[in-house]
Amino acid sequence: MPAVTVAAASRRSAWIVLALAVLSVVGVFLLPTPEPAAPESSTGLPSSYQSVRVEQLRAGLPGSDVQPAVVVYSRTDGGPLSAAELATLRDRGPALARLAEGGQVPPPEVGPDRTVAIVAVPLSTAGEDTGIADRVAALREAAAADLPAGVRVQVTGGPAFTADLTAVFDGADNRLLLVTVAVVALLLLVTYRSPVLWLVPLIVVAATEQVTLRLVDLVLPVFGLAADGSTTGIVSVLVFGATTDYALLLIARYREELRGREDRYDAMRHALRRTAEAILASGFTVVLAVLTLLLATVELNRSLAVGAAVGILAAMASGLLVLPAALVLLGRGLFWPLVPRVGSTGGEGRLWGRLGSAVARRPLLVGLGATAALLALAAAGLTARTGLSQTEQFRVKPEAVLGAQTLATSFPAGSTQPTVVTTAPAAQAEVVRAASTVPGVVSAVPGARGADVAEVRVVLSPEPGTAESDRAVRGLREAVAGVPGADAAVGGPVAATLDVKDAYARDVRVILPLILLLVAVVLVLLLRSLVAPLLLVLTVVLSFGAAFGAGWLIFTGPLGVPALDSSVLLLSFLFLIALGVDYNIFLVTRAREDAGRLGTAGGMLAALRVTGGVITSAGILLAAVFAVLGVLPLITLTQIGVIVCVGVLLDTLLVRTVLVPSLVFLLGDRFWWPGRPHRAAPEPVAEPAPAGAA
Questions:
Q1: Where are the transmembrane segments (predicted)?
Q2: pTM over 0.85
Q3: What is the pLDDT of residue 152?
């Protein structure tokens, strides 16, 4: 394939490739950054959802950009507030009013047991998140000034949650980058046992990640899409993992070819010829899989689709063009002290050869044992619960969460973020009466009123985001929909959370089968077989089920998280199916290549020997990179990272090592039906010794 091997054809062409790569990188960073696209709505949902319609209708009402920040006072010992302490809190009203929109705040409202007092301070939510954060910070400073001894204050509510979410992502990108680089550097150093070699792929990988993030900034506005910190974090980790995997596969085959060829350019040309098919098939499988997210309802997932696709394309370009050029220019000495010389042998495949032989002796027993282990783990996921409450979203609880928890000890938990019902003005009173009859509704009062729309503000008793809260919102929607002429819709943050959950449930039903179909089609085209693709897809589905179950055990055990976020099933399935198939592609394409001269069983044994080390290294590295998502502040990202990490390890150490080989040994040539193993043309060189990254 001339388009790929040109990078390694000669010293001149290698220098040209590197020069073009540098110029491309500089050009990307010199391009002007387009104006970021405005999100479809605060949740990224379309207007077909009630919460978005409410958001749009309220935009024309007076005070639509004002939300209450709730100042929560309590004693540090949990006891009741004294009369003197309450009097001091009432005297603080003017200091808070100076920061309130409209210049007025109500007196403190005291809970039934006098342990908590709250003050609702209306704040403007107009402008950037940083402006909201500044207003919340000023309120917190004013509320905390000159408090009586033993009294604490916490500011919660919608503006405070927005401010704290912004704050926890401050510097998160840098932390993610530093930790990821450190993890990749350590694993590359251990893999290659060379003081120099690990630097080359690390530099290429890090540069690819930075270029990808820049390209995402340039491309997303073109499609009218917006991104947030979680989107860029996932894209960053994906690019690091994929580019490093491709580098490990290429370098292992290049080292193998160097043991049989004197000319390093010739060795690289043959290494590319043997690995390009697997890398391209792997990369385009991931690209097609992530592009299924373009069908997602939530806008951020469509942004992730574009960003991830751009990142994988950049990873393939780096792995097949830039990295080969850099490697051949630096020569054999790059591998010092384990320099591959012509005629030398490598001992990296012995362990995997012995393991393959053990599987070949009892393939049925080994295959059944591996399947049983995966099914046992998958069974644990059957009890998984979806839906994190508002206070369970953060890995480290910020003040807004702690304040909401304190408030909930004496007031309805829904007081922090009231639910909003929009209605025709003439039906406002009737909607108030209908809403008041719904179980879980504490109060329903008339709100702002315009010429065409009016609102009703509803406080729910359950904590936002819980199953009880979801039932209350559904009941409220059913009740107000029955008011004649009201054209009522239920929105606000609590209802929006339910709509996002429903959107993800719809996306799971639509996108998951499509991902499996696309992966199967790619495997059919790659392997020219029907049996092998079906079995490989089944193994990665089984691996995902096991990872999901194991992840659920980890969340409810050591991590103490009671539920999964609604986005976790879709995103973890996407990445695990796409990335899990990668290792099967690397193994099976090599097995098919060697089966042409050794037979199907011999080809699989040879493939295990020569790819065992590199695939294991790649899997461990990818698992570690996804685990790095845990440094980001949201439980959602931690959950995705844990499930993908466990799944990649299962794919690498059990599915690819034991289950897939056992199927091949059991079926023999029928594994390739209706095709036949590829017959490779003999090459005028000695057979290379087994090689792979340790």
A1: 12-31, 176-192, 233-254, 275-298, 304-331, 364-384, 510-527, 534-555, 567-589, 610-635
A2: no
A3: 93
